[in-house]
């Protein structure tokens, strides 16, 4: 997906639970989705308050970003995630969500999602995915939560 079709804004409309909520993806940025830690859990956080990513997570993210980049492979670069801004994590009280379950992206190539080796998987339009490009109206299931992707 190139610049001409990139949405100006992407909203993840959480449509499950008692109070539906919208989460905006930052332009040229990303947000992690994870389980809200219980009182008995220890979670590592970055200095900005996000969950710490494992090396395995970072490698999967870099492969995803490099594969879908419109730039030639030599210029896509290994540290492309460093050029994106991390928005606040989306933490949900759902036992079927892993501590750091998935990551949503909005970059120059459009919107996408990457599963971060979660226990229960990430589904896009009913299909289990490791990663996927997202389009307006796509349905993403993470745990028991249902996100509708809205381009604006």
Short description:
Helix content is 12%, strand content 36%. It has helices spanning 55-68, 73-76, and strands at 10-14, 21-25, 29-35, 85-86, 90-92, 102-107, 110-115, 122-124, 127-129, 131-134, 139-142, 145-151.
Structure in words:
By secondary structure, the protein is mainly beta. Helix content is 12%, strand content 36%. It has 2 helices and 12 strands; from the N terminus they run βββααβββββββββ. The protein has helices at 55-68, 73-76; strands at residues 10-14, 21-25, 29-35, 85-86, 90-92, 102-107, 110-115, 122-124, 127-129, 131-134, 139-142, 145-151. The strands form 2 sheets. The protein has a 6-stranded antiparallel β-sheet with strand order 2-1-12-11-8-9, with no helix packed on it. Strands 3, 4, 5, 6, 7 and 10 form a 6-stranded mixed β-sheet that branches. It is globular.
Averaging pLDDT over every residue, what do you get?
Answer: 82
What strand order characterises the main sheet? 2-1-12-11-8-9
- Gross geometry: globular
What structural class do you assign from the helix and strand content?
Answer: mainly beta
The tally of strands reads 12
Low-pLDDT parts are: 41-47
Radius of gyration: 15 Å
Keywords:
globular; 2 helices; 12% helix; 152 residues; mainly beta; six-stranded mixed sheet; 12 strands
Secondary structure layout:
Blueprint: E1 10-14, E2 21-25, E3 29-35, H1 55-68, H2 73-76, E4 85-86, E5 90-92, E6 102-107, E7 110-115, E8 122-124, E9 127-129, E10 131-134, E11 139-142, E12 145-151
Parallel strand pairs: 3-4, 3-5
Antiparallel strand pairs: 1-2, 1-12, 3-6, 6-7, 7-10, 8-9, 8-11, 11-12
């Amino acid at each position: 997906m190139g610049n001409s079709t990139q949405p100006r804004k992407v909203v993840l409309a959480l449509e499950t639970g008692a109070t539906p909520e919208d989460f905006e993806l930052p332009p040229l940025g990303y947000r992690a989705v994870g389980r809200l830690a219980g009182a008995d859990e220890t979670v590592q956080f970055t200095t900005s308050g996000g969950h710490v990513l494992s090396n395995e997570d970072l490698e999967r993210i870099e492969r995803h970003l490099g594969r879908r980049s419109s730039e030639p492979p030599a210029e896509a670069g290994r540290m492309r995630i460093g050029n994106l801004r991390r928005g606040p994590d989306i933490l949900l009280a759902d036992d079927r969500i892993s501590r750091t379950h998935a990551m949503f992206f909005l970059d120059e190539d459009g919107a996408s999602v990457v599963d971060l080796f979660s226990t229960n998987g990430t589904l896009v339009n009913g299909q289990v995915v490791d990663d996927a490009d997202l389009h307006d109206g796509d349905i993403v299931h993470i745990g028991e939560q249902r996100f509708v992707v809205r381009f604006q």
